[in-house]
Structures are given as C-alpha cells and as structure tokens.
Prior knowledge:
- This protein is 40% helix and 23% strand.
- The chain has helices at 10-23, 41-54, 73-77, 109-113, 157-166, 175-178, 181-192, 210-223, 278-285, 293-301, 303-315, 324-351, 359-368; strands at residues 2-5, 33-39, 60-67, 79-87, 95-103, 123-126, 146-149, 172-174, 198-205, 227-231, 237-244, 247-252, 258-263, 269-272.
- The radius of gyration is 30 Å and the shape is elongated.
- The chain is α/β, with parallel strands linked by helices.
- The protein starts with a strand and ends with a helix.
Amino acid sequence: xxxDLTDTTAGEINKALIEGRRAIGxxxxxxxxxxxxxxxxxxxxxxxxxxxxASREHPSRTLVVIRRVSRTPRDRTGSxxxxxxxxxxxxGTGETAVLRLYGEVSDHADSVVLPLLLPDAPVVVWWPVxxxxxxxxxxxxxxxxxxxxxxxxxxxxxxxxxxxxETYTPGDTDLAWTRITPWRSMLAAALDQVDCEVRSVEVEGxxxxxxxxxxxxxxxxxxxxxxxxxxxxxxGLTAVRMETTCGPVVLDxxxxxxxxxxxxGQPGRAVALQRRDTAELIAEELRRLDPDDTYAAALxxxxxxxxxxxxxxxALGGAPxxxxxxxxxxxxxxxxxxxxxxxxxxxxxxxxxxERPTPNSLARKAASK
Length: 369
C-alpha cells in the first residue's frame, strides 16, 4: 500500500502510517528499530531496496531523508515537505516513509524525523553516499545509537579513512569494514590451525578500496608485524599472504567468489568468499548496535603507520627477518674462516713455501673444524 502526501507535516505522516497498518490488517507495531537513510534522489532507490531486503531479518521503520535542491532564491526561502508512505508488501516486513525536503526545512531534517521515530527503539542512521565529516555531531547522527557510513563511496577513500579516525565516536561504523568480516574470520581460523609466529603480511587488492586498507591496518594492529599493501586489478580484495616461522599462509581470491586457502604442510582447500551486496552488509550491521571496539582499534592504527610498515618490508626486500640463531651460526662460521685465514697466513710467512690460501680451501678447513 502506498500513500502520497504533498506539502504535509510529521503529524500527517504518522496518521498515514497508522491508517496504512489498519488497512492491511496489522494495527500492532512489530518493528524493532528505526533506520534513517540520508541520501540523494540518485541513490535513493538502491538504498531503499537494500533496506527493504534487510528488513526481512530486522523489521524496522525506514525513514528516507532526501534533501531536494532549490534552484532559485525564492525556492530556498520557502519550505515544503512531501512524503510517500509505504506499508505492507511495498515496504518489506516493516514500513517506510520517503521524506523529500525543500527549502529551509532541509536544514532542519532532525525536527522532521524526531516525531517519526519509534518510541523506546534504537535508531540507526545510514549515509550511503556523502556522509558528514563528523557523523556523531550531525543533527541526525546525534539521534542515533549507530551511525553507518561507506568510505568506498567517497571520492578519496584513503583520505576519508584518516578523517574517520580523527572524528571517531563509539557507535560509528563503516560498510568498508563490514565487507571484510569473512576475511577476518577466515584468517583468524587459519592461524588457529598452526603454532607459528607471523613475521610479515602482504594484503593485495584494488588501489582505491578502503576495505583493503582496513584489513591491512587490522592485521598490523593485531599481529604487530609490518604489513605491505600491494595492488591488483581486483575485484576488491584478492589475496592475503602471511610469512610465518612454519612457512607461508595464503588466502587467495582471484574471481571474487571462491578463494583458495593454502597452509604449509596441509592440502589446499577451497573456501567461499562471495562478495556480498549492500542488503547483506546492512543486515549484518543491524545485528549489533553496541560500539565496535575492534573497528575503532584498526581505524586508529592509521594509514600513515601502515605506510611506514610497508616501507620496512620493502627495505627488507619483502623477505622476513632471519632468526637470531641463524645470524649467530653465520657469525660463528665467519669467525672460524677468519681464524683459518690468519693461521694459514702465518704459516706461509714462516715457511716461505706455503701455498696462498684460497676461499674454497678456507671453507673446507672451516667445515672440518
């Protein structure tokens, strides 16, 4: 069922929602949260479709806030609110109100949304594109327990990650982080199968993909090792290679759906790492509304520190540092060779007829000792 309202108010929209529920025979409110989507006209359809699919797992009241551009000074001084109310099959398992704000009222969207929030239910605000610099200080973001952004939609995703780290507030999250949940689970499970120490990591993926940067920062923060970021043609994340004391651990996904996990000494295995759509990502974010401390730690690690770690790996030629025992053995061998050389030199000086030692002869005598 769809109800169109022109030049309306929040009170009229509430009445239309109640009438719609009664008309379809479900007067009770069975929603568990309010999802506020702040977007533009261009991206409203895709965002609303994803929210509708996610509502099958999380029945919610969805409020879509669209700020319409006023083309003339006269339009900017006026105010108008148009609404499109959807209930029943038109809105999934919840109910939807598409709010189009014109003129000055577009600067006060929070005053329009506030009366439409479900009482005693959590509020989630989602910006599919063009999120504010500080979501927690945004008037709409201040109403929410959870604020969802997507740095993948930003013009400069890596710079956007740095800005998110500076303004992070508990309750903030990013769909770029949600996209790597299966990767984090698979890598953690792979390391649980071996009793080894990780020495270095390489994360391979598209150049302007913030999920690759977040995964690299998470690994660097949790493992405390240098992480190198390398580029590929995608799609998205393509591989993670970890050098350990027991050999390499590689998770490689070249086609965006099926990955291959290889661990030294074990047969390779195929694992499902299908790229998920926006509806699945939003559904995952709505499962938990408490602050994500792991995301905060990875975000605050910083892209700059990640670059320094990459420089450290590059300085080592991409190879892990040799163990202390190997260095000690090599040093002891060099000392033995030096002692043999000195002894041979002294013997040659005394006898005058001794053959000058060669590198091969020194090595053989060192080995015999």
